[in-house]
């Protein structure tokens, strides 16, 4: 089963320094029929003005992943971590038993954009932790590049959940096939371009939620940058 969510159906917020497009209920936007997809709770597409960001605030028992699309984000938290993650980078924070953090555009002159993704952890009350990684952008050309996995690695952030996040840049006319186990889900989002997933056509910022689709065939109808999340 494939459920398509066109880009224009996302909830949009514009408060000047922040333009945010929400795929699930978040903040002052609540839809009781759209509170998550399996363990996935948040997928915000955020544009943040130069020098602005989210001040210190608390979280607990959530795996929070930021995928930087352009610019750079500066992270600070109550554990003492201070880090900057730029485009072609991913940061992961496990809020665990509780942490206070702040996220800012690292530039005073240039805007930035990112995906903010939240997932329920496999267990509650873990020790909070943070990491950021970079990946080689050429490695995702006509391939599914894992950037977040349960195992982690030099170019993969480690997440405390049975799930993986892949990025790809598929050239026009090319095809990729993704296969997963039974009784799993896929969240699929087109970052830019146009493609089909099991013959369902998706364009820039469209997303799809898939269940009982063990094999997904992705065909690029034009050069396409996309994200695929394999979920329990």
Indicate the proportion of strand residues. over 45%
Main β-sheet: number of strands, strand sense, barrel status?
Answer: 7 strands, mixed
Terminal Cα span: 15 Å
What structural class is derived from the secondary structure elements? Answer: mainly beta
According to DSSP, the number of beta strands is 22
How would you portray this structure in words?
With 232 residues, the protein is mainly β. Helix content is 0%, strand content 56%. The strands form four sheets. The chain has a seven-stranded mixed β-sheet with strand order 1-20-17-22-15-13-14, with no helix packed on it. The radius of gyration is 17 Å and the shape is globular.
Tell me briefly what this model is.
With 232 residues, this protein is mainly beta.
Map the helices and strands.
Layout: E1 2-5, E2 11-14, E3 18-22, E4 40-48, E5 53-59, E6 63-70, E7 72-77, E8 82-86, E9 89-94, E10 99-105, E11 112-119, E12 129-134, E13 145-149, E14 157-158, E15 164-170, E16 175-179, E17 185-192, E18 194-197, E19 200-203, E20 207-211, E21 215-220, E22 224-231
Parallel strand pairs: 13-14
Antiparallel strand pairs: 1-20, 2-3, 3-4, 4-11, 5-10, 6-9, 6-11, 7-8, 7-10, 9-12, 13-15, 15-22, 16-21, 17-20, 17-22, 18-19, 18-21
